């Protein structure tokens, strides 16, 4: 397993529905926690990668603004945008910067303040994440796209609305324990099944919520990590893939090829397989997204994902714990910050510092982060 690049610090703001400060202050909350975790100073940082979907923010080119506020001048800073997968794309960029020898320590800072615009405007911008000539004009929004995936999975494999509801029940049971989550209430199966429709078959509890938040991941070369960090967590494998933006160009509605291909690449680089993963964070923007992730990551054969949740195998005590921090369904989904939040959870798990959600003996963890409706797929495997 390659152990050339390590995570030496992680941080996250609370994810909230309406952050009262500026984007620079929001970014600082995650940065401060990560810097304290890494026990370094700004003089140790060689570069920063800021990750955000700028159409939600009033500030143009936020990387310069945030780097200045965080005291990271005159080091170079970059902006990375791959919608919902922005911060894991930023981690891939930082990995390359470190592996090339250009920098020893790189800060990856993801943020989004989605409350700066109205919910209607936010939905319109999400819709423009599809092809603005051939799809967006027809009113395709995120719930509608994922509802099509749900219908595709239902038709091909016999999956039911109750199977999806069980995923939300699990997420909520862990969201209660996550002090940084937006939604911290338990949800019963009955509540999930009886909730109002959003886009059939998806109901209110099948969907994550917009949020404001920031995450920070500090990465270093292996040599530097050993020098300055007591508990480095190494990147063992990275995989990334893209799919046609137009869903008419996809091979299936019952899964996301970009996730399957990214996972294959990450497993091969790490020299491990799905059976070796002790804990996973997957992109559950909708319950059907988590269901498809079970299968695209190889935790279950295609069509067998429902068996995992029915048998509670993706709970903390199961054979493959998934989203035991509540996932996006409980934490909320501040676009640019989401992937970094997932990484923070896995790093804490592999350090045995995850508290009430700790998976005993976790040594290898996986992050699966999707951008748009299966356009961009990132999978990263971490090890102690």
From TrEMBL:
Gene Ontology BP annotations: lipid transport
Domain Thiolase N-terminal: 21-162
Thiolase C-terminal domain segment(s): 240-384
Highest taxon of the lineage: Bacteria
Molecular function per GO: acyltransferase activity, transferring groups other than amino-acyl groups; lipid binding
Keywords: Lipid transport, Lipid-binding, Transferase, Transport
Record has Transport as a keyword: yes
Gene3D superfamilies, per the entry: 3.40.47.10
InterPro entries, per database record: Thiolase, Thiolase-like, Thiolase_C_2, Thiolase_CS, Thiolase_N
PANTHER family: ACETYL-COA C-ACETYLTRANSFERASE, ACETYL-COA C-ACYLTRANSFERASE
Protein name per Swiss-Prot or TrEMBL: propanoyl-CoA C-acyltransferase
Species annotation: Pelotomaculum isophthalicicum JI
